[in-house]
Amino acid sequence: MTPMLPRRLLLSSFAVASVALLAACAGSPRTESTGEYVEDSVLTTRVKAAVLAEPSLRSMEINVETFKGRVQLSGFVNSQADIDRTVAMVRGMSGVSSVKNDMRMK
């Protein structure tokens, strides 16, 4: 073998491994990339903090899930006004692309 062949083989192997690693981190319509997962976790935390900071909603049982910027709200509240206020508040937050409301009145 020539001295260049092992080096080319090593570089080729590194390139293939790099592409495979990047492909594993990429998202698809049904899965999130690593970066999207982190962004959604941060967004979920921000939404939960905003709900807890709102005095009229503090004691409510509101659950928050986020997937690719789409926030889903579920749980139980006391009135339709609480539902409307929560949905409007979350829609106005940066990073939220849409809000799905699954909250119900007690």
Provide a descriptive summary of the structure in words.
The chain has 106 residues and is of the alpha+beta class. It has a domain at 33-105: Histidine-containing Protein, Chain: A (2-Layer Sandwich). The chain contains three helices and three strands; from the N terminus they run ααββαβ. It has helices at 4-25, 34-53, 80-91, and strands spanning 61-67, 70-77, 98-105. Strands 1-2-3 form a three-stranded mixed beta sheet. The radius of gyration is 22 Å and the shape is elongated. It starts with a helix and ends with a strand. The model has no long low-confidence stretch (mean pLDDT 82).
Overview in brief:
This protein has 106 residues and is an alpha+beta fold. The chain has helices at 4-25, 34-53, 80-91; strands spanning 61-67, 70-77, 98-105. A three-stranded mixed sheet has the order 1-2-3.
Give descriptors for this structure.
3 helices; 3 strands; 22% strand; 3-stranded mixed β-sheet; alpha+beta; 106 residues; Histidine-containing Protein, Chain: A; 51% helix
> In total, how many beta strands?
3
Low-confidence stretches: none
Arithmetic mean pLDDT: 82
Q: Which CATH class of the domain at 33-105 applies here?
A: Alpha Beta
Biggest sheet, open or closed, and with what strands and sense? 3 strands, mixed
Q: Tell me the CATH architecture of the domain at 33-105.
A: 2-Layer Sandwich
The helicity comes to 40-55%
Strand content: 15-25%
Radius of gyration: 22 Å
Return the CATH topology of the domain at 33-105. Histidine-containing Protein, Chain: A
Look at the helices and sheets and give the structural class. Answer: alpha+beta
**Widest β-sheet, arrangement of strands:** 1-2-3
Please report the number of helical segments.
Answer: 3
User: What order do the SSEs take from the amino end to the carboxyl end, as H and E?
Assistant: HHEEHE
Tell me the overall shape. elongated
**Cα end-to-end separation:** 77 Å
